Amino acid sequence: MAVTQDELYAGLDLELSWSERALPEHVRTKHVHRLHPYHGKFIPQLVEVLLDRYFTRGAHVLDPFAGSGTTLVQALESGLDATGVELAAFNCLLIGVKTAEYELPLIREELNDVYERVGVQPTKARRASKYVSSWYAPQARAELLAFADLIGEYVYSDVLRVVLSRAARSARRTTHFDLEAPRAPQRTEYWCHKHKRTCRPVESAGAFLRRYTLDTLARIEEFAELRGDGCSAQVLHGDSRDVEYGTAFDGVLTSPPYPGLIDYHEQHRYAYELLALDDRRELELGAAAAGTSRASLAAYTEGIAAALANAARACVDGAPLLIVVNDRRELYPEILDRAGLVLEHRLRRHVNRRTGRRAGEYFEDVLVTRRA
Ligand SMILES: C[S@@+](CC[C@H](N)C(=O)[O-])C[C@H]1O[C@@H](n2cnc3c(N)ncnc32)[C@H](O)[C@@H]1O
Q1: Do both 246 and 363 map to the same domain?
Q2: pTM for this structure?
Q3: Are residues 136 and 205 in the same domain?
């Protein structure tokens, strides 16, 4: 028998559980949070509430698995300083672009200038990688490579790298319903489960490049109005198990990778290919490619514990370490123990699932821990 709403809500932290109506897609992806899609992030509103409950203005928060930078962006919005550690180079690029302070007249001038040049500049003859040759139609490929050639001419070149990546994601030869993790290029028309009609793979990238250039500018301008004065964020590109922190933090807010679920480098493969980014996937904790064998879970447990212990050592005495997880394999009692952390509370939240393709109730915990 299905549970009643009252039964479902008993034991939940309702301030951390939102319905689709209360928190529609455009609110969850407000301002810079949507500079580029990222599979596996937590929602900014969760971070907002937790920062408000456990930190004071002016504090310095650490996220040792910074991902797309949700903690850092929200820290800036809440008047805190923030540091993130992230292994994947593309994620570091994205975080840097989201959290940088811009000279607004200059970024407006640059993005409007590049907008006018999309599709005008011929590509210098250069060999596309095997990946680029097979995943893009000839026109899309030429437009993306021409845009890539322009990037170095601008002060805010990293912003253009993110625009290029977002357009490259949209312009892949793929089906509309499988943008997150397409397995092979789609070269012919296909029956689209999303639009319930026959669709064709994308031929060109120009419209995406133009649209995302203007959208990125608007989002950066919007966030510039909201960020706290004098607050700053930095991202350390490294492995959170052994990165050296040169400062003391007032606490941690993080969502570690899950075992065997998502490949954080592979999901942005197009960016690594087009921008020649450093690939460190062999150090990814919990990578899908490693699977969930007993040995993989043991390595995962050891790795997450080492990263949390390293973060905890960098915190002031009594600091809260908040860990957002769905621990369905019950690995966290051992992880916390190994990391020298004590569980103080477990806050349970209901996660609103957006698509019918991922059916079923889903819950997540916020583990409120402190150093033993
Ligand atoms: C669940 S995601 C974090 C998402 C983040 N909360 C957000 O909202 O964007 C976990 C992140 O941990 C990163 N990661 C995996 N292994 C790592 C390691 N050894 N050191 C640092 N980061 C790592 C992955 O690249 C991924 O971006």
Answers
A1: yes
A2: 0.94
A3: yes
Does ligand 1 come within 6 angstroms of the Cβ of 311? Answer: no
Structural domain including 26 reads 5-99+232-371
Residues 182 and 255 both lie in one domain: no
Determine if ligand 1 sits within 6 Å of the CB of residue 67: yes
Task: Choose the residue to mutate in 41, 61, 87, 267 for probing ligand 1, maximizing ligand atoms within 8 Å of C-beta.
Answer: 87
Q: Which two tokens stand for residue 126?
A: 């250069």
- Average pLDDT over the chain reads 93
Same domain, 364 and 237: yes
pLDDT at 356 over 50: no
Helical spans, DSSP H, in the chain? 5-9, 25-28, 44-54, 70-77, 89-99, 104-117, 130-135, 138-150, 157-170, 206-226, 269-275, 294-313, 332-339
Ligand 1 pocket test, candidate residues 73, 239, 242, 264, most atoms within 8 A of CB:
264
Within this chain, do residues 175 and 264 fall inside the same structural domain, yes or no?
Answer: no
Cα separations in angstroms, 287 against 196, 293, 314: 33, 12, 26
Same domain? 242 vs 364? yes
pLDDT for the residue numbered 13: 86
Dist. CA 95 → ligand 1 center (Å) = 12
